[in-house]
Amino acid sequence: xxxxxxxxxxxxxxxxxxxxxxxxxxxxxxxxxxxxxxxxxxxxxxxxxxxxxxxxxxxxxxxxxxxxxxxxxxxxxxxxxxxxxxxxxxxxxxxxxxxxxxxxxxxxxxxxxxxxxxxxxxxxxxxxxxxxxxxxxxxxxxxxxxxxxxxxxxxxxxxxxxxxxxxxxxxxxxxxxxxxxxxxxxxxxxxxxxxxxxxxxxxxxxxxxxxxxxxxxxxxxxxxxxxxxxxxxxxxxxxxxxxxxxxxxxxxxxxxxxxxxxxxxxxxxxxxxxxxxxxxxxxxxxxxxxxxxxxxxxxxxxxxxxxxxxxxxxxxxxxxxxxxxxxxxxxxxxxxxxxxxxxxxxxxxxxxxxxxxxxxxxxxxxxxxxxxxxxxxxxxxxxxxxxxxxxxxxxxxxxxxxxxxxxxxxxxxxxxxxxxxxxxxxxxxxxxxxxxxxxxxxxxxxxxxxxxxxxxxxxxxxxxxxxxxxxxxxxxxxxxxxxx
Length: 484
Ligand code: CS2
Prior knowledge:
Blueprint: E1 18-23, H1 27-31, H2 33-44, E2 49-54, H3 59-66, E3 71-77, E4 80-86, E5 89-94, H4 100-107, E6 113-116, H5 137-144, H6 152-165, E7 172-175, H7 182-197, H8 199-208, E8 214-217, H9 225-235, E9 243-245, E10 250-254, E11 270-272, H10 276-300, H11 305-309, H12 312-326, H13 337-349, H14 357-361, H15 364-378, H16 386-406, H17 412-416, H18 421-428, H19 434-442, H20 450-453, H21 456-472, H22 474-483
The structure holds D-mannonic acid (CS2).
């Protein structure tokens, strides 16, 4: 990312006041929005420091606060790692310890924007109806205890309620998670949640709150001891909050901020009127391929994405899938999907990045709908391009089956690493027949679109591939896919 020139008369990232609350201060936020905001303040100033909220972990909160919010970003370049100090976080708060300071931060009218990275499963919004999922644990808790919320929707609505009661302006709410139409989805979920508690608040939110959509992109493996060791080597300081990431970074933001925003454009972001085509491209080409690599990689014994990509047949499969995904989208001005795909192949192959297939494989029930099912539905009926989508779904089924077969009952839920693990275990039981495995998991409620459930080609393509994966393994399935 380019380093803008500093304007020495403006407040700088390490001294400015806070203007943003960010919910979910994990590695991705620290590698992405925190870096753009740091660069934006360095370029144009503004009181836009970030108050970071952690919903669950307390360790990261303590680590950041002990360093005045500062932390190290290690960028893994081909010619070695580079360290960068980021000071855009003012301080962090652990919601699990006490919700009062979180609600106070949300109520503070100097906070103009709330940004969010909590991962797909924390939303509790049905992707199709866009209504709240009343059985989602956090949603259920927060509807019953709206003054002491624990989840995303509960927090956002409690904060907005305080603003309305104080006669203050609301904050702008920005989802930075890999969800389709993330702004519209979150808007509908927040309004539906509010309606269930306070219909007038729901109307006020509808009339006053803006929910710009964003597309976020930066491959960020979980930090390890090697991350912290490199941070120490490069900076001389031990930093428990250090994270590592690839050099590439992209943030496309819908420019709809009635109460202002940092100069994110000067920090390298792209501000546009309509984000959804970018988001669709990224979800289908990058994240869809990532899920294919994750499940096929798990079956083929590849711990890291880079090692799977170093296998010629595997990387040809990934390229094939990218072409198939690109064929599901209308053209996007100024973007050549083949160039975008070629760049992705290079990023996935980066030898410096140790991105575990297991990390990407988690939460499949949350990820596959937008990455695999939605594009598969957009192919013309009978298209041969369906094959790689069917392979990705078959690979997920095979991973679930194999993990259940090889794990003892006590560790099963943890091993499946999916919010619907209990349902998956129950549905699969001891069934080993590919057609039955398909039936049982395709019929999880509210998941696979009806169009695919009714599509006999999809059904057959998945079962053929699942049979081969279970009997002969990943290499055989890749070979067959490339021969089609
Ligand atoms: C990955 C993403 O874990 C996953 O599911 O596909 O986190 C991916 O690395 C990011 O979206 C890249 O921007």
